[in-house]
Each structure stands twice: as structure tokens, then as C-alpha cells.
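Pipeline run #58 for the internal structure catalog. This entry was flagged by the ingest filter as a single-chain record with no existing model, so it goes straight to prediction. Upstream metadata was stripped on purpose; only the residue string is passed forward. Reviewer on rotation: M.T. Logging verbosity set to normal.
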Amino acid sequence: MKISGSKKQRFYIASAFKNKNLVNSISNGLINQGYIQTYDWTNNTKASSLQELRNIAKLEFEGVQEADFLIFIFPGGKGANIEFGIASGLKKESIF
């Protein structure tokens, strides 16, 4: 995928938290090439309340919505599968 014209492509990476180092490596590489990450969930810590969990879920949902494409890194957890489902429903390009 290449950046076309003046519009920078936006991406979201879905994966399990245990893959956060790989996610960060791929994100940094894409950012260095001019892509924009819509949301970096690797900065999150474990939610300590239901409200905090809801807020994180909202930010992740918005990140998928705002992305031009989604990258899915296996293995993914339940959240990554949901994010892929959202992206599919929105007809976003997905890369595995």
C-alpha cells in the first residue's frame, strides 16, 4: 500500500496485548513512512473499572472507524477479532 497524493493513509493494528512489541515495531515503521496511526492501544494498562474499560473500547472502536486499513497480527485476542469484525463491516481493507 502506498501513500497517494496529499492524503496520508491511516492505519489501525489489531492484535493481542502480548504482541505489543511487534505492534510497536510495525507501527513505528509505518509512521516513519508517512502513515498515520489512528489509535495506539499498546499504551494502555489493564482497566481498573468498568468505566475505564468502556472508555478504552470507545477509543479502539473510533480508531478502527478512522482507519483507511486494518492490520491484523496473529494471534489476536477477543478484542482484535471484534476490531476485525468492525473493519469488515465498514468495508475497510484488512491485511493479515
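catalog note: The CA atoms of residues 9 and 58 lie 21 Å apart.
catalog note: The beta strands are 10-14, 36-37, 69-72, 93-95.
status: ready for reviewer M.T.
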